[in-house]
Amino acid sequence: MKPKVLFLCTGNSARSQMAEGLLRAMAGEHFETFSAGTEPKGRILPEVQQAMRDVGIDISNQWSKSVMEYLGKQVFAHVITVCADAEDNCPAVFLNMGTHDHWPFEDPAKFDDASRLESTRRVLGQIGERLRLWLIQQDITPKAVRW
């Protein structure tokens, strides 16, 4: 059975969705990948979907969901928070599962409309690079993804 990885942010509309899609593309044969939010927005930002399509990753089967959907139903080997709010507000049960990492990234939902796509692409690259390094630490050679 593959270890499960949960990426957490506040709205589950950007950062955690990108991390979920990237990890699936880079090492999906090694992990079951999930994402959730402490206060889900109910949708993925269009700019996030576009940025992911631009690097050849389809996240159209992903959706914005609450961390509470997993409470008592899933055990995660890795829980990775990607924003300070999720780090502060995540139910402690998840932060005490397996290994817990905190990788704070800027929130694309807070970027102004004119620069949101460009800024989302920048955050996507940062998440991709952090995941690449994390996979190497796990002794996994990540598949190449251009971001």
Describe the structure.
There is one protein chain. With 147 residues, the protein is of the alpha/beta class. It has a single domain, classed as 3-Layer(aba) Sandwich (Rossmann fold), CATH 3.40.50. It is built from five helices and four strands; from the N terminus they run E-H-E-H-E-H-H-E-H. It has helices at 15-27, 46-54, 84-89, 92-95, 116-137, and strands at residues 4-9, 32-37, 78-81, 99-102. The chain has a four-stranded parallel β-sheet with strand order 2-1-3-4. Strand 1, helix 1 and strand 2 (32-37) form a beta-alpha-beta unit. Helix 1 crosses helix 5 (116-137) and helix 2 (46-54) crosses helix 5. The longest helix has 22 residues, at 116-137. The protein is globular. The model has no long low-confidence stretch (mean pLDDT 91).
Distance between the termini: 29 Å
The secondary structure category is alpha/beta
Number of domains: 1
CATH H-level superfamily = Response regulator
Q: Quick one: overall form?
A: globular
Write the CATH architecture name. 3-Layer(aba) Sandwich
Helix share bin? 25-40%
